[in-house]
Design goal:
The protein has 10 helices and 12 strands. The chain is an alpha/beta fold and about 280 residues long. The strands form 2 sheets. It has a 6-stranded mixed beta sheet. The structure holds NADP nicotinamide-adenine-dinucleotide phosphate (NAP).
């Protein structure tokens, strides 16, 4: 495809597969809402074709774009500059072309923070202990965010405890580690519980997590958003916790890229959220 195929400025999302991506809906909504010229197109790019696609970006066919699974780590080798936080997280999800240079950043951590700020204002005031369930790619962005907001202690509990060791190494002394079985040891003191595992997708639930041990004042956030109310969030609501679902993280993480490519800082509105909920049948 040539540059003339896409209205300019042209941005993209690349992944493999890519059909499931909701990013074209989000950016399409904003382009329409702000009456901006431009386009945002999804491309299925196999790992072997990543270099060729990035060459098209460098040659100014695009202003930038988003990068999703499985390219978030591999694309780092194609960037001329990487935001230091993205380096610590170990993944890039947003590319911006500046002249012939490609700059990479990770906006998941910003999306995580903006979602909590909107859904549970003040959640980070005097936050002493935060429990993070999971130690995968998303957990790394959440840890970067919690370190940035100066959580005193971050407890990472993972099914495979060894996988969490790299997080402690990369995110510093405030990170404590354990297995999911250690949940009750830390739950009473926690001011925030975040699920970053894939448990919850499709309504799946944690086996035997003693959720009742969680302190009454804790905010509960599930970054899984299919379904919008996961079993973890349903249990938290039933116990009177303030809860925040994961869809807002997806919407907010898109905003910095849009601002860089199209020159307008977009708003995450109820209307946008409703559109995505309807499109996903949530
Ligand atoms: P990932 O790197 O594959 O990590 C998956 C994590 O889930 C690992 O910690 C894994 O534990 C754990 N896990 C998987 N099955 C489990 C089970 N049955 N019991 C306990 N733990 C289990 O995936 P990721 O990229 O971090 O994504 C994780 C989830 O976050 C996905 O559902 C994704 O859709 C969601 N997410 C949402 C947003 C958003 O914008 N809202 C952004 C990014 C990701 P082990 O290490 O033991 O395998």
């Amino acid at each position: 495809m040539t540059s003339s195929s896409f209205p300019s400025p042209a941005a993209f999302v690349i992944g493999h597969p890519i059909a499931h991506s909701k990013s074209p809906l989000i950016h399409g909504y904003w382009l329409e809402r702000y009456c901006l010229a431009g386009s945002y197109t999804a491309f299925d790019v196999a790992p072997a074709d990543l270099g060729d696609f990035i060459a098209r970006l460098r040659a100014a066919e695009f202003v930038g774009g988003n990068v999703t699974i499985p390219h978030k780590e591999a694309v780092m080798a194609h960037c001329d500059r990487i935001d230091p936080l993205a380096g610590t997280i170990g993944a890039v999800n947003t590319l911006v072309r500046r002249g012939e240079e490609i700059h990479g950043s990770n906006t998941d951590y910003l999306g995580f923070l903006a979602n909590l700020d909107a859904g549970a204002p003040g959640w980070d005031k005097n936050l002493k202990t935060a429990i993070v369930l999971g130690a995968g790619g998303a957990a790394r962005a959440v840890l970067a965010a919690l370190v940035a907001r100066k959580a005193e202690k971050i407890v990472v509990l993972n099914r495979t405890p060894d996988r969490a060791k790299a997080l402690a190494r990369d995110f510093g002394a405030s990170v404590d580690l354990g297995a999911l079985e250690h949940f009750a040891d830390f739950a009473p003191e926690a001011g925030l519980l975040v699920n970053t595992t894939s448990v919850g997708m499709g309504g799946t639930r944690f086996d035997g997590l003693p959720f009742d041990a969680l302190g009454q004042g804790a905010v509960v956030n599930d970054i899984v958003y299919t379904p919008l109310v996961t079993p973890l969030l349903a249990a938290a609501r039933a116990r009177g916790h303030v809860t925040v679902d994961g869809l807002g993280m997806l919407l907010h993480q898109a905003a910095p890229g849009f601002a860089a490519w199209f020159g307008k800082a977009p708003e995450v509105t109820e209307e946008l959220r409703a559109r995505i909920v309807a499109a996903m049948g949530l």
